[in-house]
UniProtKB/TrEMBL annotation:
The organism's place on the tree of life at top rank: Eukaryota
InterPro entries linked: Peptidase_S1_PA, Peptidase_S1_PA_chymotrypsin
Xref: Gene3D superfamilies: Trypsin-like serine proteases
Protein name in the entry: Chymotrypsinogen 2
Length: 71
């Protein structure tokens, strides 16, 4: 987790490249064997809470980027 840039709202609806070792299979709950990369779109905190209401109380706008893939 890193501190986000000031004025993060100016990046809403722009591409976001992420990388990490996170889970790749929900049913197995196993992590990746190699670094993963994803290119997606940054969305506003308001939209984030709308798409994922179950996490709304946990979202800290200073620490988290919220992304959305329309697939």
């Amino acid at each position: 987790v890193v501190k986000l840039a000031d004025e993060i709202d100016r990046y809403v609806n722009t591409s976001c490249i992420m990388s990490g070792w996170g889970y790749t299979n929900k049913s197995l709950w196993t992590g990746a064997n190699r670094l993963q990369k994803a290119i997606t779109m940054l969305i506003s905190s308001t939209d984030c809470k709308k798409f994922w209401p179950q996490f709304a109380d946990a979202l800290d706008e200073e620490l988290f980027l919220c992304v959305y893939n329309k697939k």
